[in-house]
Each structure stands twice: as C-alpha cells, then as structure tokens.
Amino acid sequence: MAKLVDIIGDVMATLWYDVQPECVICFGREGPVCPTCREIYFLPETARCPGCGKIMVQRDPDHRESCHPEGVCLDCREGRGPESLAKVTALGHFHGGWRDFIHKVKYRRNPQLLTLVADEASRWAIQNLPVPDIITAAPMHVEKIRERGFNQAEVLASLLAWNLTVPYRPLLRREAQNVPQMGLDRQGRLENLAEAIRLHSACQNGGDLRGRVCWLVDDVTTTGATLEQSARTLLAGGAREVYGFCLGAAMAIHG
C-alpha cells in the first residue's frame, strides 16, 4: 500500500507541475490529446455497448433497421459479455496510437502518463455513468505489481477519484491463478478467475460497500471476464450497483 501511495504522490506532482504541449498519441501540437486523435480514437459521437463497453459498429449499412432496440452488441445479446455490471463505458478504441499509449504506460513503466489523459477520462466517465459513492480498481496479483512496480488500473482509478472528489478504495485483491489468462476464451477466463478475485479482508464486513454505487476501473476490456468477476465479488460484498470504466475497448458488431 505504501508503494501505491508513493506512486500516486508522484502522479499528483506531475499533474500539477508538468506541462504537456504535445499530443500524447500523435506527438503533434494541441496536447494532451489533439482534436484529430480525439476523433480517431475516442470517437465521441459513436455509441458504446452498455453491456461490455465496446465501440459499436454496424455490421452492414443495410441492416440498420435490424439493430437491437436496447442498443447492445451482438456478443452481449448472445451472452458473451459481462452480466453483473449495470453499465460499462470506454474512453476510446483500443487500437493504433491509443493502444501504443496504453502499452507505454503499462509495459514501459510510465504511470505518470495517465495524468495527461485524466481530465479526458473523467469527463467521459461522468457524462456516461452515474455519480459513484466509491471508486475501485480491477486488482493485479502482488507478484505482477512487484514486477511492474504499479497497477495501472489503481493509478487511473485514483486519478478519477481525485478529479471527482469521490473516495478511492482498494477493495479487491487477486490470488494466484491456475493458468495465465492469455490464450483462454471468455468462459475459460471466467473459470480461471472464479477463485482468484476476492475482497480485501478489511472490506469483508461490507462496511465500505454496503448499499453503495461503485465504479470499477480497468485500463482495457477485451472479453470482459475480469470486469465480470470483479463486479460479482463487489456485489456479493454488498455493493448496490457496479459500473465499469476503461480507457480502451475493442469494436463490437451492433445489429
């Protein structure tokens, strides 16, 4: 926990004192995210699937009238999306320069870069999700945190909480998994996570969660398995509703 506090302190210092004249995605002018990259990657006028947060696309322009009336994607309609979250939204499409930015944060140990998109993320989240009582993050196993030095979801969740003046709590912990998630299908990931994501022992009496609206934050959503199992754990711990927010998501077929 002390390590996380140190990271957040460094991130806050960067937020106040660093100036970012360049776009973090294309490195052109008008940073931190230029209007062109905002349109290409954040797609502000494009709907997200409320079930899984993926960016909605039409399968075929001729099928517009066949779109599902609730506006969910084909995967969610066929039971392949998270079911325990009231809604999920993502800031942008996880590809190209936006994917490169997120990978730079995660794999090149640059958590401070998240400060440069914290305002964009906060605006999008509060426009698309109800005001939370509490914000938490998808957990990372302690060995992975030692290897990387931080959990990017925790840094992002803390920045959102700071911007919105909402409490941040590290409610979840991740046990060792039987096998790595990479390469597993959605059902395999869910089974692999079933016993891996737990409430922190200090939260198991439900005091931090009971009756509360909770935002669950992660960097990227793919199959939705981590969001789903994390949300199940939060609801079992007493949360009234859980909403998901991610920086990036894939495209999904609508209709």
Describe, in plain words, how this protein is organized in 3D.
- With 255 residues, this protein is an alpha/beta fold.
- The chain has 9 helices and 8 strands.
- It has helices spanning 2-17, 35-42, 74-77, 96-107, 118-128, 142-148, 152-164, 186-193, 225-236, and strands spanning 55-58, 87-93, 134-137, 172-174, 197-199, 213-221, 241-249, 251-254.
- Strands 2-7-6-3 form a 4-stranded parallel sheet, with helices on both faces.
- β6 (213-221), α9 and β7 form a beta-alpha-beta unit.
- α1 (2-17) crosses α7, α5 (118-128) crosses α7 (152-164) and α8 (186-193) runs parallel beside α9 (225-236).
- 42% of the residues are buried.
- The model is unreliable at 63-69 (pLDDT under 50).
List keywords for this structure.
255 residues, two-stranded parallel sheet, 8 strands
